[in-house]
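Blinded run. Sample ID left blank on purpose so nobody reads anything into the name before looking at the predicted structure. Input follows.
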Amino acid sequence: MKFIADEQCEGLRADSCISDIMSDLSRSKIQKLIKEGFVLINGKIIKPSSVIKENDIITIDDITTKINIEPENILLNVVWEDENMAVINKPSGMLTHPTTQENKGTLVNALLYKYGENLSDINGEFRRGIVHRLDRNTSGLIMIAKNNKTHEFLVNEMKSKNFIKKYLAVVKGVIEKDEFEINTPIGRHPTQPFKQAIREDGKESLSIVKVLKRFKNATLAEVTLITGRTHQIRVHLSSIGHPVYNDTLYGFGKMKIKTDEQVLESYKLEFTKPFTNERIQLEIPPDEKIKKVLSAL
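Blinded prediction complete.
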């Protein structure tokens, strides 16, 4: 298995970075693989404490990390595409890419069936075509690169202020301010490695929140991501006492209106069409989870 470290891995220990990518493997298992020489960074053996830099090539070679990824005929909602890329509306409940424990039914399985080998492989076989990720239970727009040159273009676009990504979120409680920023650093949770948390030593993280509609005990908000940290919206909104509706990982708790975890959708994208000056603006309607909760509210 091979992948290239992205911005989210910059400055992390090797075992922490790999834990982010392979969340189904325990931290102790990852440390064991590193110590036994199964993990290479840029072709060299490392230590668990080795610091990762963006664009480092990470190779993991162990029988327990072998993944057989088969193309699957899964219907995809293609919102926009050209010869270089596509934008897919990913449904809630679908993993973006396979893991060592789950290698069927993911977006990558579907992409391999639809596009075959016409997908970027910069991030390795198990993330073919994937430029950025959405959590399993977060729905909405996700960009796919059909070749490596386009992948690099889109990564640079995401790092610039030209890339705009907006989410719809139903959150607990009534947000009083109409529009505001949440500018607090995010890092790995100190005791629960599968979670993220607000930390002074975390990475700079900035979200812009705009209230769209208020209800008796909830708010429909639009969240614009200026940075793209793991679980950023969920962590930021939880930190101000307004966790995303039904997000049990970040403290929402059980509610009468049942949904498949967090009520969160990537609903707007604006980016430059690769290798042109043309701006592409895409917007999709609220998904079934959002409509269900709004109707009940």
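Unblinding after everyone has recorded impressions. The two ends are 46 Å apart (CA to CA).
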